[in-house]
Each structure stands twice: as C-alpha cells, then as structure tokens.
Amino acid sequence: MRRLAIAALLLLPAARAQLLQPFSLDHRAASSSPADLSFLLDAPAGKDGFIQIRNGHLAKGNGERIRFWGVHFTDWSPGSVEIVPKEDAAFWASTLARFGINLVRLHFLDLNSPRGLIDASSPDSSAFDPAQLDRLDYEVAQLKQHGIYVDLNLNVGRSYKAGDGVRDFDKIRWAKGLTLFDPRLIELEKDYARRLLTHVNSYTHTAYRDEPAVALVEIVNENGLYLGFRAPTPYYGQELTALYNAPLPRLKPDEIASASPERFRTEMLFYMDAENRFYQDMSAYLQHTLGVRCPIIGTADHAHSSSPYPMLSSLAKLDVLDGHTYWEHPGAPPPHNTPMVDDPLHSTVVQLSRTAFSGKPYTVSEFNHPFPNDYLAEGIPILAAYASFQDWDAVVAYTFEPKRDPTWKPYIGDPFDISLDPVRMTQMAAGALLFLRSDVHPARQTIERTYSPQQVIDSRRLPRAEQPYYTPGFPLALPLEHAVRIRSLDGPPTGAFPPAPSNPIVSDTGELTWSASSPHTGLVTIETPRTEAIIGFLPAHPLTHLAAEVKNNFAAIVLSSLDGQPLAQSSRLLLTAAARAANTDMKWNADHTRLASQGGPPTLIEPVTGSLTLRGLTAAREVFVSPLDGAGRPIRQTTAYRTGIGWNFPVGDPATTWYVISVRRK
341 CB contacts (<8 Å, ≥6 apart)? Predict the structure, then answer.
C-alpha cells in the first residue's frame, strides 16, 4: 500500500504540469493600481529624523515605532548591476513602493564596476568608479523620495588587487574570516567605510553618515571565525596561529571532538575574543570616528548547522541583532522540494527565532523560499505572520533583481529572484500589509533563556541533531506559541522550559495555528481582524471571514483589508491566491528534487481554482471582485453572489495570483 502511495506522489507532478497557465508580471507597464500600497510608506524616508532604538525596537527620530519590510537590490541576471541605471532609479523606487516595500538592503556594493562601486580600472580596490558612485547617489535619492530607507552593507564581496598591499590577494577571494583579524584587511575595511560614509550624496546634499534615510549600517556580511578555521593560504593560517599562541597549533576540524575540555575552551575563547575585538573596534570607528548616526549591525547569525552563541556573545554588544536563513537553500544538502508546513519545528520561523535578544532590535536581513519549490507559496506569508507575532523589527527578502535590460523577458532566472515571480512578488504586497501594520499581534508572553559562559563555549561541540537552537531540552514548538528571546550569555545556566504543544500549535494570541499531523497535511491559518489566511494542504475549515472550496491540493490564500478597517467593515480588500510558479519548458530531475532545465519565458502559474466565500461582511449590499493582471491593473470586474453563509465568487479564470475586492454597503 505504501509503495502505491509513493508511486502516486511521483506521478503527481507530471499530472499537475497540465494545470500551469501563463501569467507574467509586467512592472514596466504598471502605473496606477487598486493594489497600490505606497500609502504604507511615510515619504520622504527619514523625514522624522534618524532611526534610533527605543524600548528595544527600531523607531523614527520622533520616537514612533517603525518596522521594515524590504528587499535587496542584487541582480544575478546576465549583464547585471548592483546599482540601477539612473534612468530606471525612479521607476524601480515607485515599483517597490507600490508593493509596500520600505527598505532596500544595498548588498554587493563593494564589487568591481560595472556591477559595484570599485573602479575596475584601478590598480587597487580602494578607488570608487565616479559614474557608479553617481548612480548610487541618485538611486538612494529616489528611494528616499518614495519613502524607502536603505541598509548599507560595508564588507560583502570585495576582492583584492595587486595595489592593495594584501598578501596572496589573488587567492583569498572575499577573504571570509580573514577580514576579522588581518591588520591590512581591517585597515582597508575602515578606508572603504570612510570613503563611502563621508561621501556627500550629490542629490540629497548629505553625507551617508548624516543621512536619516540610511536606517542601518552592517559591518560585514555572513562572516565569522570558528574552531578549526582553515585559512585559504598558509600565510593567514600562520598569522592566526601566531595571534593565538605560536608554540601551540590550532585544532584541526577532525581534532575538535577528541580535544580536552581545557584545550577546546581555551581556543574557543581566543576566537570569541578575536571577533569581539574586531566588532568593538569597527563599531567605535563607525560611530565615534566617522560619526555614523544610525544603528550598527555586526553581521548575521547565518549558520544554522552549528551553535551561534559564541559569535552572538560579541554581536549582542552592538546595536542590533540580525539573522539569515533559507528554506532548502539550493546549495544545502537534501532534502529539496519539500513543504515547510509539514515541518514546523525546522521552519524558517524557528530557525530565525533563536537569535533575538531581550531589549535589542532584531532584523532578518536575508530570507527566501528559493525557486523552484512546489510549495514556495507558503514562505512569505508564514514568515510575515510569525515575524509580526515575534515582534521583530525588519524582514528583508533576498532578492529583487532590477533587470538592467528593459526588454528582459518575464521568467524566473535564478533561485532567489522574486522580481518577476508572480507568486512571491504579489505575496510581498500581502506581507507588507500584514507585517508593517502588525496585523498579527505580538505574543502575549515572552520565554527568555540564559546561558552560562561555559554553556556558550561548549555549545559548539553539540551534535547537529540539536539544530537550530543548540539548547538541549528546548521545545522547538515554543517560538510558534510564544515570543522567545535570549536574556543573557553571561548568566545562570539554561534552565527547564515549559512544555510545548505538538499538534496543532496555536499562538498565545489565538491568531496563528500550525497543524501538521502527517506528510502532506501541514496547514497554517491566520485569523486576525484585518488579515486572514489559509496556507498549506487543503481542504481547510472556514475562518471567520474566509472560506475556500478550491481544486488545488496546496495553496496560500491571503485576504487583507486595504483601507485599514477590520475585514468585516472594510470597503477594499486585497486577495492573493497562489499555488505553484514555473518557467515555460522547465524540467525537473527524475526524483523531482532539483531542476534539470531552468526553462524560459513566460512564467507560468498553477491558478488557485474554485470558489471563495467572504463571510460576516457587515451591511454589505454588493461585492465586486477584480482579478489583476501582471501590472496590477483590473482585468475585469465580476459580482459575487450572496449565499446563506456569505458572498461567493469564482477564482482561477482568468489565471492570476491577486485580486482587489470592493464592498458596497447599505
């Protein structure tokens, strides 16, 4: 019987391929749209002063709390650039604003031109390309004008040249790890920071260190030292050993498990001290020498296959904690193409939740549900909901690729590109409403945990079975039920935790429910006054205002008020209804876990097909439903019909992933 079931599942993708229909986003054709969410932004960015920290969260200069819902500008398409051409800067800024995006993480700025700022013709990597710098200035000015803040990354992808005076410059690539201890590399990092942050933007007439539209500055991206660190060349290995203790060799990876506790802890303390000295020195340089006025991030907690606590012991001394994660990153080992709703305890929500500290802002500056995945529609709405529940300060998707070529054909060019993905991009609009407005209320209870210094060190030898929390006995369902925070890494040992439910897991606000009893049954529901959603395997029980009778076995259906009123009284609503996205002629491998062929344009979707019912609409007289095209324009308008339980209307024809609903009242 089990073999028959497995065979049926293997046949399912081929059968479902017949359900795919063309639907492409067309940003360049967009102008006005009933789904325009730019009203969520408060333009110009920074008009109320510099982003500050107030009561453990990010706030505007006037003290008002602010959350950030963002994307990267990082493009991996052929001929791509990290800084958009001037003729497109206003266009892309207005596009992001329409989707409710109020932060752009400027990531690989330290690449060589024509992608990044570094002058490719210079003999060293210190000189900026004047044309690229001018484009960056104009891009930031346009983002600011539209109400979009920026997060400036300093050291990300810099490569070194002969003129830099860097040993083995041609062999160390991005110099991960080395940038935290090598004096020459640190000197160059400070020089880059000085050149960029003291530069006066020729369009805003403000230096970046004095620019209130700069929300955050990050020192390094996904960087760290760790036990068993292997330098790319002997010179740097010897340098690190000399910093440790020249007569005593550092532990090799295969020696860690058998090392004595004293030797293990001594070497761990060395790495922790090296990281702490680097971050304290760099943050002091940025804030006190250069006069940067926004909060500073050290780097992200990004390696969920090992304990973060030694690294967090230094990062927590800075202004903001940050985390990165992906559901089934294409570079990670199997499994691939599995539904996250079936595995709540290892979800992106649980992974990211381990890093937040009490009294500190927490941001997620990279996340994605990479393409292809038959269940990618689950990723954005689930994270938006639980990030609001956990009361995080920013969520930033990696990545929006601003295509340099205006004739770029509509297809998903790589795993991370959401810009032309008709599922993930329209869901960014729904996520903006949900997260920026705090439609899901913050948790009523916060579970704090403390670690002793010895626990912090010894956590690095815990087995991978303890991931992602590396805290034996910690119930991984807790972050789905309550808020979770670290109170101290220099306190009493971690104690016992309250028991957590297994299935279903209900948030302590009662607004979120995650159930997963067996494979292909996972389901998340969101039920708040202004947003309701059904995400996962169907059918699902009706919610207060939303019921679905659709043919799809998996979908993400999100209904949100557009006018800020509760759903029952709202006159305008945004509906996103999504299942799968694909490219034309895209082909999977034999076991349907990885792509054999990326395919090409146009993009395809599996429409959510059937009917939806809106329930409990107060004094509704007529309900009109407008499916939207890829530019956000109404395709046509249909009238919902009244039944004994609410207002019913069909979905799926025409094929689309989003709708605007208008309600006329008596």
Answer: 375, 378, 382, 514, 516, 522, 523, 524, 535, 536, 537
pLDDT at 600: 95
Mean pLDDT score of the chain: 95
Contact 217, 297 (CB under 8 A): yes
- Mean pLDDT (whole number) for 573-598: 96
Please state, in angstroms and rounded to a whole number, the distance separating the CA atoms of residues 476 and 493: 19
Helices of type H across 198-250: 234-245
Residue with tokens 């649980």: 350
pLDDT of amino acid 8: 38
CA atoms within 13 A on the CB side of 340: 27
Sequence-distant (≥ 6) Cβ neighbours of residue 399 within 8 angstroms: 71, 72, 73, 74, 75, 76, 107, 368, 416, 417, 418
In tens, the pLDDT along 34-93 reads 999 999 999 999 999 999 999 999 999 999 999 999 999 998 877 777 899 999 999 999
Q: Give the tens place of pLDDT for each residue, 192-202.
A: 999 999 999 99
Alpha carbon distance 524, 154 (integer Å):
38
The pLDDT value given to residue 561: 98
Q: What is the DSSP string of 360-417?
A: S-EEEEEEE-PSS-TTGGGHHHHHHHHHHHHT-SEEEEEEE---SSTT--SS--STT-
CB 394 within 8 A of CB 68: yes
Side-chain half-sphere CA neighbours of 637 within 13 A: 9
Helix (H) or strand (E) holding 8: helix 2-17
Instruction: Determine what percent of the chain falls in helix, strand and coil, rounding each to the nearest 5.
Output: 25, 25, 50
| Across 266-271, average pLDDT | 96
Edge-to-edge strand list for the sheet holding 149-155: 296-297, 214-220, 149-155, 103-106, 68-73, 394-400, 362-368, 321-326
Q: What is the pTM of this model?
A: 0.96
Q: Residues 505, 508, 512, CA angle at the centre, nearest 5°?
A: 55
Q: Identify whether the C-beta of residue 554 lies closer than 8 Å to the C-beta of residue 537.
A: yes
Distance CA 45, CA 206 (A): 14
The pairing of strands 523-527 and 512-515 is antiparallel
CA atoms of 401 and 420, how far apart (whole Å): 8
Q: Looking at the predicted structure, is the pLDDT value of residue 23 above 80?
A: yes
The one-letter amino acid code at 557 reads I
